[in-house]
Amino acid sequence: MKILTFFSLFSTFLSANSINVEENAGQFFSSGHTNNWAVLVCTSRFWFNYRHVANTLSVYRSVKRLGIPDSHIVLMLADDMACNHRNPKPATVFSHKNMELNVYGDDVEVDYRGYEVTVENFLRVLTGRLPPSTPRSKRLLSDDRSNILIYLTGHGGNGFLKFQDSEEISNVELADAFEQMWQKRRYNELLFIIDTCQGASMYERFYSPNLMALASSQVGEDSLSHQPDLAIGVHLMDRYTFYLLEFLEDIHPASKANMKDLFKVCPKSQCVSTPGHRTDLFLRDPGSALITDFFGSVRKVEITMETINLTDLIKEAEQKDNVQQMLEMVTNEMNILKLWFDSNKLSLNLNKTKFMIFGNHTTNIDVKIVIDNKTIERVYESKFLGVVLDHKLCWKPHIKYLCMKMARSIGILSKTR
Amino acid sequence: MLIKASLLIQSKRRRGQLAALSIAAVVIMVGVPLWWRTTETYRAWLPVSQINELANMQLQLSADVEVVFARGTVTPEQQKKVPLTQTQDEEHTVDENTALRYRYEIRYRTATIMEEDALDQPTAAEADLSLHTLSESPCGSLVVYVIPESSSLLPEDMDVYIGQRRTALLRIGAQMRVGRTVEQLLAHLEPRIKQVLQVMSFSHTDITAALSDRVRLSPGNKESIADSMRAFKSSPGYEITFSLLNPDPKSHRLHWDIEGAVQTYIQPLLTKLAPVANFSLDSQTLYYAMLGVNPRFDSSSSAYTLNSDSLAHVINPVEARLGSNAASSNPVLNFLLYVPDAHHSPLYIHDNKKQEVPSNAFHSPRWGGIMVYNVNGFYRPEAVLPVDININMAKVMGVFLAQLRLLLGVQSSTAPPGFLMAPCGSTGLADWELDRLMWSRSVENVATATTTITSLAQLLDQIGNIVINDNIAEQVSSAVTSLQLAVAELEAGNLGFALQYSKEAIMASERAFFDPSLLHLLYFPDDQKFAIYIPLFLPMCVPILLSLLKIVSEARQKRREKQAKKD
To answer: May I have one GO cellular component term (chain A) (predicted)?
Structure first.
């Protein structure tokens, strides 16, 4: 009796396992994307905006940890924190109180730094309208099967986002840029996260399909910063990104957490502002979209079932060698012949000299015979002693020639009727 | 005295009126046009009507088929009754803007004596080879040889043999043995020839898959989704990188003749694919490059195994170390050859069913392929490390060629039942596979270029502030011309020219769409426009307007006085 129950339990476990494996393989293809990109933008400069740079760098670290390589990340930072003369710990950017976590490190690859972080460059990266001299690392080379994560942080207002204290991007421009990306099929699905004051106003105007947006605060609310560090003297992180990162710490490349969990990050009790999200343009159900669909880069993989048998190729290569050897011999002999002609004051008319290769298989057309710096013409049929020889010895040209001759005589005969 | 004063006042007033009138005249006649001209954006003329015509895409694909009756399939009297040519049309409407028409031009003839001799070979493969020596079919056309049912060329259960070039051997069915008329024969052959065409030229599913840019169809099943995601999108050029990963240089000193192998095995395929795209090749060796996954030791086969779930996590750690050519933005295909370190040899890949994979390789859609090459059999355990190992490039390139074919979209779709396919030739690509690729690429290019041009026209129309330079208008016009030519060539059945024109169209349209000067930064909401103009123009216009009004009211008053005087 016990054995029976144990057996039945075991069998159900096995079947559940096999279903899991099938599901895994199936889920790989349900999202419809084959590669991931991330565009991380910090739109502020100056020392007192330390927290925005720390925000962006922390998201950069998580995205790299989950598998997106540097070649697929476009990082735009003013990058004036680590080497700022007000930084008590040069070459570091910390995201945690008591300097626990240095997010700058030594392998940060910033693609647009300093004054290159402008609205124009951001829009150029998104729409792909970069000058032809732009290197690969500064381009967003996504295709119609790419999932893109866009993260913006900085100072914002109702309907705009301030770039480096000198210009601003409006929500209409952003929506138009996304629409141009959609027209050119530059993304499969796009996740837009913004951590600024009144962030929800930036995604109000979106109208392209397959966009999901999260913001740290609603219109009329401010996003607040999290914790100041007394040693460094500035606030280190914003609240929304801090809790977002805490959530991402639990995500690993094989995790199955989905977007609905992401919406629950940083409730009002922790964030003071009310985070918002927008999913009406997203075609899939957010519950079926995994976090790793955007933050990580889980590749789809197929086993290669077929191979091509290349040992026949070696035989063909040998044949090719034979032809070459033969041609070399012929060239040598012809050169000797030419020498004899010249030494006996006879002339060899190279224009009237032709060569033909007899053979059944189609040999490489690229064969040349050169005598005295003159290339000898290759022919495929030639009249010799009244017979038209062709290179395949199938006698078609000879028969044609005979038919032409006879047709003439028959024509004359018919006139005599 | 009073008269002089009143005259003075009148002259002053008239001067004032003249001044106001002349300022108003200058403002209206000179100022307004000047302001209009200096604030308008330069927009070159675009052929909008032609673009709108193109948006409604009606594609016609023509394929030529020559059906050759071998001896024993038709009697001489029937041969006279067989029509010389037959044209069949098939119409499909994909959506409200896209319609497809497939035209098959079938020509019938009997086999010549030489072809009969060629068909007299013992096996189908040899018959195919000797048939090739007789004639070459142009690109996009097919020759189908109909052989009698009694022929021994094909094995019992196979009815069709598809050769390496553009020929197929079709065995006539058993029911066509006696007492059949020409109409019955043709009716019997028609669906079978159509089936052959669908395998060798184009099928409706292929063409609609190529139109995926235009029409996002709901995916049929998992295989079709996988198929559509696997191959790279059409691009004018590709970069292929071969990388040798050696995690253990202390034990293995690996030698691979990559240049020779590429010349012998890969270059013929790429030369054959030259009309489709340009390829640039490079290779590299990476040392101390580990896989990101720990393989498990399987005691039953005393080997290390990687199961299919962990394969997905192998690529990312490696990809960070692979370089790429910074100069071009062409898609990159990476082929990695991984030689496991001595402690983890031999390493085998297992599929879902825990079976060993014979090729020991896997590929990732739109990225490339990885092959694991075990070298533990090449040296004895007590050999002096490091050992020199020469890698057998034929085996490696066999796998990489197969992966390259899949990634480029040369579908080795499962043959329908009863079909026997010849193995692809020395170049790794059969001629009809190239034709298939050219059909789908042409259609894809035409669809993409049309979408690009129409969306560009729409965008430029919507946003009135974008400057359209002359070079963009030129590119758009040339793209439109190339598109029209490509569609015409597809209709005529000239596949080579159609592909060339479609490539030109796509390059011109991409260049026009992604021109850096088309950036829309000029978003001014209307209230901002007012806020700019009012401080400039209002102080100037108010006095003029007021004086004009005064002039008008005075003139009216004078007229009324005159009227009153008259009465």
So the answer is: GPI-anchor transamidase complex
Is the Cβ pair B516, A298 closer than 8 Å?
A: no
Query: How far is it, in rounded angstroms, from Cα A340 to Cα A335?
Result: 9
Task: Look up tokens 């079938």; give the residue.
Answer: B106
A–B: how many Cβ contacts below 8 A?
Answer: 181
d(CA A59, CA A42): 11
Residue of A19, A167, A308 to mutate, interface with B, max B Cβ within 10 Å: A308
To which residue do tokens 């209307």 refer?
Answer: B526
DSSP result, A54-84: HHHHHHHHHHHHTT--GGGEEEEE---STT-
List B294's β-bridge partners, or say none.
none
Q: Residues in chain B with pLDDT < 50?
A: none
pTM value > 0.90: no
Q: Would strands B387-390 and B252-255 be described as parallel, antiparallel, or unpaired?
A: parallel
Whole-angstrom CA distances from B243 to B287, B315, B393 are 10, 13, 13
Q: How far is B385 from chain A (nearest CA, A)?
A: 31
Q: What are the E-state strand segments in B222-302?
A: 237-246, 252-255, 278-287, 296-298
What is the spatial distance between Cα B468 and Cα B515, in angstroms, rounded to a whole number? 10
Q: Which residues of B touch A34 (CB under 8 A)?
A: 229, 364-367
Model confidence pLDDT, tens digit, residues A161-212:
999 988 889 998 899 899 889 888 899 999 999 999 999 999 999 999 999 9
Q: What is the pLDDT of residues B245-260, one digit of tens each?
A: 999 899 889 999 999 9
Query: Parallel, antiparallel, or unpaired: how do β-strands A167-170 and A302-303 relate?
Result: unpaired
Please classify residue B437 by burial: count the beta carbons closer than 10 Å to its beta carbon, then call 0-12 exposed, 13-18 middle and 19+ buried: buried
Give the residue on A whose Cα is nearest the Cα of B315.
A299
User: In this structure, which amino acid lies at residue A272?
Assistant: V
Of A197, A226, A235, A277, which one is the catalytic site residue?
A197
Task: State whether residue B329 is helix, strand or coil.
Answer: coil
Q: Which residues of A touch B329 (CB under 8 A)?
A: 136, 139, 141
CA distance A395 to chain B (A): 10
Q: From CA B200, how far away is CA B436, in angstroms rounded?
A: 7
Most confident of A36-45, A104-113, B114-123, B423-432: A36-45
Find, among B175, B120, B118, B176, the residue nearest to B143 by Cα. Answer: B118
Q: Which residues of A touch B212 (CB under 8 A)?
A: 144
Gap between the Cα atoms of A332 and A94, Å rounded? 77
Closest CA to A294 of A109, A42, A38: A38
d(C-alpha B65, C-alpha B143), whole Å: 6
